[in-house]
Amino acid sequence: MIHLDVMDKGILILLAMILLLPLRAEEEMSTEFLKVPNDFLQQIEAEEEKNRKIEITLEPKADGDIRDVVIHFRNISDHTVHILRTLDGSLQGLYYPHYTFSVSNLNSEEAVPRAGGGCGNRFGLYDGLKWPEDYLISIEPNETYSRSMKIPYQLKSSESYSVRFEYLIPKYILSEKRPLRDTKGNWYRYPLNIWTGSVKTEPLVINHNQTEVATP
């Protein structure tokens, strides 16, 4: 019979734990990641991806205040385009897609302060919404999707501003394994069939007397 002292037993236990670590990690990985439906994981053909194009325009919202605008996403290609709604952190540039407003005061060189409010913690995905179905927006060829938004800056009705909006989601994010999470700590990947790239509006000039799109 082989007798092991306390140190030998400790070494054997440590070796066993090291050998089991990959299995443990694989087990946690399989339960931590929630699957994306197969329909949303189909890789887009290179030629189709090349031809998928959108353009966006910005206009003031009727009967809204100075911060209320409407963003129009128009599909100008021959293929259906899939974009994403705002995530918890899109406006802050924490999660893609970035919904970025650039605002400058035409009456002053001072920076325009951002509007406050909201929770400090950003998780990417909201409670009660299913990923990715509840976030996907499908725009058919020559069709337009419009949504109202509030400019996240402190604007004064006595001042004039130039406002521009950008929608951004880079292609590399589709290959990331842990780019998104929800409030429960589950991790998600982005669908492979969404439109990627950057598109910007022309500047929108806003003041208390009139609102107009600036001439490029």
Overall description:
With 216 residues, the chain is α+β, with helices and mostly antiparallel strands. The protein has helices spanning 6-32, 46-51; strands at residues 54-60, 68-75, 81-84, 98-105, 136-139, 144-150, 161-169, 180-181, 187-188, 197-200, 204-206, 211-213. The chain has 2 domains: 1-32; 36-213, no CATH class. Helix content is 15%, strand content 28%. The strands form 4 sheets. Strands 4, 7, 10, 11 and 12 form a 5-stranded antiparallel beta sheet that branches. The protein has a 3-stranded antiparallel beta sheet with strand order 1-2-6, with no helix packed on it. Strand 11 and strand 12 (211-213) form a beta hairpin. The chain is globular. The model is unreliable at 20-35 (pLDDT under 50).
